[in-house]
Amino acid sequence: MKGLKNRKQYSPEFKLQVVKDYLNSDKSLNDIANEYSIPSNKSVHGWVKKYVDSGYDDNIFNSKKGRPKSIISDISKAPPFIYESAGIIKSDSNDSDDSALLKKKIEYYERLLLEKELLLKIQEDEINLLKKKRSEK
Description:
This protein is mainly α. The chain is built from six helices and no strands.
């Protein structure tokens, strides 16, 4: 674990610049690593592979690592069919009788229900796709 403390982290822009320089030149991985002061050409190789595997997507290095805390990070962006299938009627009323705590609890459970509905929909779509592929064989 000692080596992890001193590991340099590179920005997404830097990685993309290094990868494009490598792909657009006749330089070797070692040459590129030395030119950009990267200790190992394995890093450059990994970045190039990731970029090529992504279909040359310039945003590939901007993605966050790890699992998101919530599928629906902003409940207002949930697709309408999720609300409908969950039986939730969305209203914009600001009734003063509702306490802030009750509103937070409702939002939490709505988000939880919406996430479960979305996951269920995704899984149903995957099952249907697999069934379709199986029947085509």
